[in-house]
Amino acid sequence: MNSVKSRRFLASFATAITMLSITRTITGNGDLTSSVTIAQALVFASPIALAGLAGIWSERAGVVNIGLEGMMILGTFGAGWAGWQWGAWAGVLAGVIFGAIGGLLLAVAAVTFGVDQIIAGTAVNLLALGLTKFLAILLFTNAPGGGQAQSPPIKGEIPTFTFNSIVDPLTSIHEKGIFFISDAAGLIGGLFLHLSILTIITFLLFVMTSIVLWKTAFGLRLRSAGENPWAADSLGVKVVRYKYLAVVFSGFLAGLGGAYLSISSTIYRNGNTAGRGFIGLATMIFGNWRPGGTGAGALMFGYIDTLRLIDTGNKNVKGLILLGALVLFTIGGLMMRSGKRNTAIGFLVLGAVMVGAFFGATSFPPEVAQVAPYITTLLVLATASQNLRPPAADGVPYRKGDHH
Predict the structure, then answer these.
(1) 341, pLDDT greater than 60
(2) Which of 243, 271, 330, 353 counts the most CB atoms within 10 A of its CB?
(3) What is the SS3 string spanning the chain?
(4) Using an 8 Å Cβ cutoff, are 43 and 196 in contact?
């Protein structure tokens, strides 16, 4: 089974590099696969990935976590407040604690008192937004370098590492412009350029989640709470306890994502999350409630965000249009091969329209890049909905002794 997954991963990786190589060759835009772009994409992707991972933990235990945005907001504030006084690592600690408190609030409301999980999560979002704005005014207004909507600068920083022995030769290969090889070199080199310890921690948390939830007895019990809590209860599983653990740890992860945002920008600001908690939910669904796909979805958002922000002369947005067309053609081909002819034709036509737009238009507004990830997620949901499988009891209220 592992060998099958490895082959699929390598095939997907090779396909992605091929499409990027074609796009880079046609557009002549080396930014699309440069090490600097990939390194920055990892920075943008990590908070989203942590929010998506937080959603996996909560929903695998059967609790829909709409409150991820609020937990991230609490994490950004905690990191800004503690980081200003005691340094960046204290900010990380405070961020995860504040986020876990948000998770505990959701667990008390949804698990203990049976409040509708969507309403409870929305309440956490609203509470976090209002509370952090109030505390920012109270604590930061008269602080040196602070203000009503921002903290003073965070002291110190989280170390980053560049493995020059790996990055330098790969950068040289990338600059040669060799089809596929140079692009693969740029992508791999970016993984070792200005690599933050928080990014490494994010990667390790994904590995840990894959092992704990799918390879241990603890993970089996936790997932049983999200699949059939009544059957799990009959077998002696402490369902409420597992739901609490999952939702609080979900808040911990979301808080870490929020802390990452504040520390990477060296300051807390109101609205710093900018909806990343909701984007994290989208990546979780994109990834079919599994870590691998969730991480891939977060990287997609981070990559597109990076290209949008470093765009000069509208080159990157045009490149994304062509890359999107190639993705649509690939999906259409796979659909045609699997016998879904009507759906395949729709994708191929849409891809052709995007190719026409690429060659026919001289420029595109930057908003095109902003909406691209959401359109991609909708397309995945529309085409792969039959293969998406959320936990069977996700969002279903549980009462010990009741029978569903």
Answers:
(1) yes
(2) 243
(3) CHHHHHHHHHHHHHHHHHHHHHHHHHHCCHHHHCHHHHHHHHHHHHHHHHHHHHHHHHHHCCCCCCCHHHHHHHHHHHHHHHHHHHCHHHHHHHHHHHHHHHHHHHHHHHHHCCCCHHHHHHHHHHHHHHHHHHHHHHHHCCCCCCECCECCCCCCCCCEECCHHHHHHHHHHHHCCCCCHHHHHHHHHHCCCCEEHHHHHHHHHHHHHHHHHHHCHHHHHHHHHHHCHHHHHHCCCCHHHHHHHHHHHHHHHHHHHHHHHHHHCCCCECCCCCCHHHHHHHHHHHCCCCHHHHHHHHHHHHHHHHHHHCCCCCHHHHHHHHHHHHHHHHHHHHHHHCCCHHHHHHHHHHHHHHHHHHHHCCCCCCHHHHHHHHHHHHHHHHHHCCCCCCCCCCCCCCCCCCCC
(4) yes
- State the residue for tokens 């710093």: 272
| Residue 315 neighbours by CB distance under 10 Å | 18
Cα–Cα distance between 303 and 68 in angstroms, integer? Answer: 22
Could you give the domains of the chain?
Answer: 33-311 (1.10.3470)
Q: Nearest-CA neighbor of 48 among 306, 247, 269?
A: 306
Amino acid at 90: A
- Does the pTM of the predicted model rise above 0.90? yes
